[in-house]
Write a structure and sequence with these properties.
This protein is 79% helix and 0% strand. It has nine helices and no strands. It has 176 residues and is mostly helical.
Length: 176
């Protein structure tokens, strides 16, 4: 799993997927099917599949991670935040827009409850929700989400110009 994460960070997604798949096989052979370590590897594998544009395999792995986490910890835990965010991305790519919307909204609620209303991760969640609405042609809803993202960046005093530029560009696209 750690080797997979290293390759994921380096952008070698095929190699990362191979290591994550090996890790899942080992965990399945040695541990129960509902082990939280298996959930983490499945979430990592889902992320790697998203990086190569394989939304269906990503969704399969993210659903496994979601089921294990909710069975072991419950449906309200910060451990679900990255799983929900990536589920939303995969569902959006597969054009399951309503389910993607629900995943992003659950992620937003979970971030607010566990990390606070000004956490910078909210900007990412709102940006993703804006992209989903933009993809469907709901430009006013997209604009509202992008504005929320920009507000969260300002509240969190984020200094990375890339974050600011992304929000402003997205707002400009909606206005256009």
């Amino acid at each position: 799993n750690n080797l997979g994460n290293c390759w994921l960070e380096r952008g070698d997604y095929t190699r990362a997927i191979d290591f994550f798949q090996q890790s899942i096989k080992i965990y399945r052979d040695e541990l129960s099917e509902d082990n939280l370590a298996l959930a983490q590897v499945a979430a990592n594998l889902g992320n790697a599949y998203l990086e190569i544009g394989d939304a269906q395999n990503a969704l399969n792995q993210l659903q496994l991670a979601y089921l294990i986490i909710t069975n072991q910890i419950g449906a309200s835990t910060p451990s679900l935040i990255p799983v929900l965010m990536n589920q939303g991305l995969a569902l959006g790519q597969l054009e399951y827009y309503q389910d993607a919307q629900i995943a992003f909204e659950k992620a937003i609620n979970t971030i607010q409850v566990y990390l606070g209303a000004e956490h910078p991760l909210l900007a990412t969640a709102y940006n993703n929700l804006g992209n989903l609405n933009y993809q469907q042609g709901f430009f006013e809803r997209a604009s509202a989400s992008y504005q929320n993202a920009l507000d969260k960046i300002q509240q969190a005093d984020v200094t990375d110009p890339k974050d600011w530029a992304t929000c402003l560009m997205n707002l400009g696209n909606c206005a256009y």
